[in-house]
């Protein structure tokens, strides 16, 4: 998600979103939460969206601030499938904690194969050098990947870094895909 998309999403959530924490570990689905909000608060199905999140259990966004306030007033007094529900207003730093990552840096990483330039793999790589992934940029060429991470100490990020990147696993029954006419296929 780009910074612009993130800002738009934040504006949409401000004042109309709640985070939900369930007491106990009962199985509760988003549909069950929506039904309870309809039954207890009169919130229409089309005016609410419930998403599974972590570390909170759900993020609820409303189209109307009035619905958000009505639900917030019932915090701790609603239950779904035996799980008591507490609500808190959403804000950007709801799960934030003090951190040493104070610098945003733009890094160019050369030599990563395409399968290692996926967001999940980039996150693992950046964690090894005390950075936290924010976003990646569309590649200008196949040899370089650019990322935007938070960093503890930008000066401590190594200029060179040796990596062992395993080849992507292929199922044993699939032939490698190739257009090379010198490689013959067994039949």
Tags for this model:
187 residues, five-stranded antiparallel β-sheet, 9 strands
Notes on the structure:
InterPro entries: Sex_diff_modulator (IPR053253). This is Os10g0159532 protein. The protein is of the alpha+beta class. It folds into two domains: 11-89, Alpha-Beta Plaits (2-Layer Sandwich), CATH 3.30.70.330; 103-156. It has helices at residues 3-13, 30-41, 65-72, 119-127, and strands spanning 17-22, 48-52, 58-62, 78-80, 83-89, 103-104, 107-110, 131-136, 144-151. The strands form two sheets. Strands 2-3-1-5-4 form a five-stranded antiparallel β-sheet. Strands 6, 7, 8 and 9 form a four-stranded antiparallel β-sheet that branches. Strand 4 (78-80) and strand 5 (83-89) form a beta hairpin. The model has no long low-confidence stretch (mean pLDDT 81).
Order of helices and strands: HEHEEHEEEEHEE
CATH homologous superfamily grouping of the largest domain? RRM (RNA recognition motif) domain
Give the helix level as a range of percent. Answer: 10-25%
Number of strands: 9
CATH topology name of the largest domain? Alpha-Beta Plaits
CATH class of the largest domain: Alpha Beta
How would you state the average pLDDT, rounded? 81
């Amino acid at each position: 998600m780009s910074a612009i998309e993130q800002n738009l999403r934040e504006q949409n959530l401000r004042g109309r979103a709640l985070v939900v924490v369930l007491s106990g570990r009962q199985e509760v689905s988003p549909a069950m939460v929506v039904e309870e909000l309809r039954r207890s608060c009169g919130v229409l199905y089309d005016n609410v969206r419930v998403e599974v999140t972590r570390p909170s259990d759900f993020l609820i966004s409303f189209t109307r601030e009035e619905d958000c306030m009505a639900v917030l007033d019932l915090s701790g007094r609603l239950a779904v499938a035996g799980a008591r529900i507490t609500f808190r207003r959403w804000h950007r730093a709801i799960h934030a904690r003090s951190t040493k990552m104070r610098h945003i840096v733009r890094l160019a990483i050369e030599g990563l194969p395409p399968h290692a330039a996926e967001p999940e793999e980039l996150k693992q790589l950046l964690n090894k050098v005390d950075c936290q992934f924010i976003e990646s940029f569309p590649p200008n060429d196949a040899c370089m990947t650019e990322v935007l991470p938070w960093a503890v100490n930008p000066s401590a990020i190594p200029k060179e870094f040796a990596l062992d990147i395993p080849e992507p696993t292929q199922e044993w029954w699939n032939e490698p895909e190739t257009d090379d006419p010198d490689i013959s296929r067994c039949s």
